[in-house]
């Protein structure tokens, strides 16, 4: 699996987490499924692994025991999250409330349409 691609997924999720307070379920899981081509259960387990402490520790452990967590991928995504959340937060603070709400709405619609159509 390409570590650069995983880092980009983590970076994008980090930026969006900093902007909107979102990440795992709405950004990382779909990206790991549609971009990195991981099976859904593995994408969920990997997302939890990336968000491990304190958010997903018990959930990640359960997926790990079931064989559905890619630790290597989770660590690369986590590295992207670390830096991406900083830049996303900076960007959000430079935006107006209205433009931030509109951007967030677009993200939600795009993810919803993609999930609906696949």
Report on this structure:
- With 118 residues, the chain is mainly alpha-helical.
- It has one domain (3-117).
- 83% of the residues lie in helices and 0% in strands.
- The protein has helices at residues 3-20, 24-34, 40-50, 52-65, 71-93, 97-117.
- Helix 1 runs antiparallel to helix 2 (24-34), helix 1 (3-20) packs parallel to helix 5 (71-93) and helix 3 (40-50) packs antiparallel against helix 4.
- The longest helix is centred in the last third of the chain and has 23 residues, at 71-93.
- 38% of the residues are buried.
- The model has no long low-confidence stretch (mean pLDDT 87).
Question: In short, what is this structure?
Answer:
This protein has helices at residues 3-20, 24-34, 40-50, 52-65, 71-93, 97-117.
